[in-house]
Amino acid sequence: MNSEFANLALDQVRYSLVWEDSRTLHAALAIGPADHVLVVTSAGCNVLNALLAGPRQVTAIDLNPVQNALLRLKCYLIAHYEPEVLRALMGFDGPAPVARAWGQVAASLPVELRAFWEPFFAAHPAGLLPAGRLEGYVTGFLPTLPADLQAKLRQLLAFESVTAQRDFFAAELDGPVFRAAFVAYFDAANLSKGRDPALFRYAPESGGATFYGRLRQLIATKLVRDNFFFRFFFFGPQGLPETLLPACYQRRNHGRLRQLLPRLRITTGEAVAYLSTAPGRTVTKASLSNIFEYASPAEFERVCAGLQVSAGRPLRLLYWNLLQDQHHPAGPAGEALPAAAQARLAHEDGCFFFRNVRVLSARTALARVPALLAAPVSNQFISNSI
Question: By its UniProt entry, which InterPro entries does this protein fall under (predicted)?
């Protein structure tokens, strides 16, 4: 697939957190024991969350080798250490535990992992989560606010009813000062600090005002104290209740992840192109993050047109839209769920700033994809020795 993401310098951790809700992933894909699941790596959270469903195989794929390096580090920590070490290096408990955990881990890491991550942790003492380009930008918003507005944002976490929460927001925050600060910080000019401007080439909307409207909708409909993404967005990784963390970072799932790691394969390449390879044709479910956000509508339609019908297994594709509404309601690659069902998925998704969620279905996808969709893909496997 021709995407603006392929034109970026892929030499940094662009995402240290997966913002697509894993509950939506599980509800949309209904992963079963016979499935081969393809997941865009990003920060690796939903790769691990998909693995927890117990499919036959999970393949993680990303154009950015640094994102795959991040997942390999997490897998090594899961395989060899107790959950407290992973939690500490993620940054859930602040900088001091990061330093202690890195001192414990560094000497045991394989040479290539240590060579990459030692300078990284030296430069990012607060841990992995605050170090992503997007996450550092997003969590930088709160300190730009006056102290009284910071305090009022934190008060939103105290409410036990949506009505009281909504009324407080309307009376104390939803005014010109907070609104202007939010819109300016997350509008196009500043948004490029978190994501490269090229990634918004096809976006028909400006970020700030759109995201503010989605924030207001969230506050009017759901308790934000129970929303992991809201809390991380404004307050960062510290102080989050264990029960709100993505499943892959909860202590209770650490042992199961360790058992399931041999089913995971990590691949460097482009997701749509991978589906046209021999191993890619065994994929039955795919979570594609928001990769179509970076493609033109014409390119998206061309990709959908490449979904060919044959007598083989079904393929279900899940993806999120941010500022574009990429969808393909008819044809060989049709919507897998009725519009109302997809709307419910989008409404229940925990991350408030996405526009919607889409699920496509086809029979044996990309079996005869045009050659121009193909791209080199290199495979690297995680073995029992990690």
Answer: DUF3419 (IPR021829)
- Does 215 lie in the same domain as 302? no
CB 151 within 8 A of CB 131: no
Query: What is the pLDDT, as a whole number, of residue 193?
Result: 60
Please indicate, yes or no, whether residues 276 and 344 belong to a single structural domain of this protein.
Answer: yes
H/E element, 266: strand 264-268
CB contact set of 231 (below 8 Å; sequence gap of 6+):
157, 224, 225, 239, 240, 244
Helix (H, G, I), strand (E, B) or coil at 139: coil
CB crowding 289-325: b at 16 or more within 10 Å, else e: bbbbbbbbeebbebbbebbbeeeeeebbbbbbbbbbe
Domain that holds residue 174: 140-235
**Model-level pTM?**
0.89
Count of structural domains within the chain: 2
Both structure tokens of 64: 């950015």
Residue 219 lies in a domain: yes
Tell me the CATH number at 373: 3.40.50
Same domain, 258 and 375: yes
DSSP run (H or E) holding 88: helix 83-90
Length of the chain: 386
Look at residue 244 and tell me if it is in a domain. Answer: no
Asked if residue 358 lies in contact with residue 236, where contact means CB atoms within 8 angstroms, the answer is no
Greatest Cα pair distance in the chain? 62
Chain Cα centroid distance, residue 157: 23
DSSP label at 286? E
- Assign 301 a pLDDT band (cuts: 50, 70, 90): confident
Quick one: 125 and 225 in the same domain? no
- State yes or no: pLDDT of 373 exceeds 50: no
- Are residues 61 and 155 both part of a single domain? no
Q: 364 and 270, same structural domain?
A: yes
Burial of 243 (0-12, 13-18, 19+ CB in 10 A): exposed
Whether residue 259 sits in one domain with residue 164: no
Residue 362's beta-bridge partner residues?
315
Predicted pLDDT at 313: 56
- CA–CA distance, 64 with 159 (Å, rounded to integer): 40
Output phi, psi for 293, to 5 deg. Answer: -65, -25
Question: Is the Cβ–Cβ distance between 83 and 251 less than 8 Å?
Answer: yes
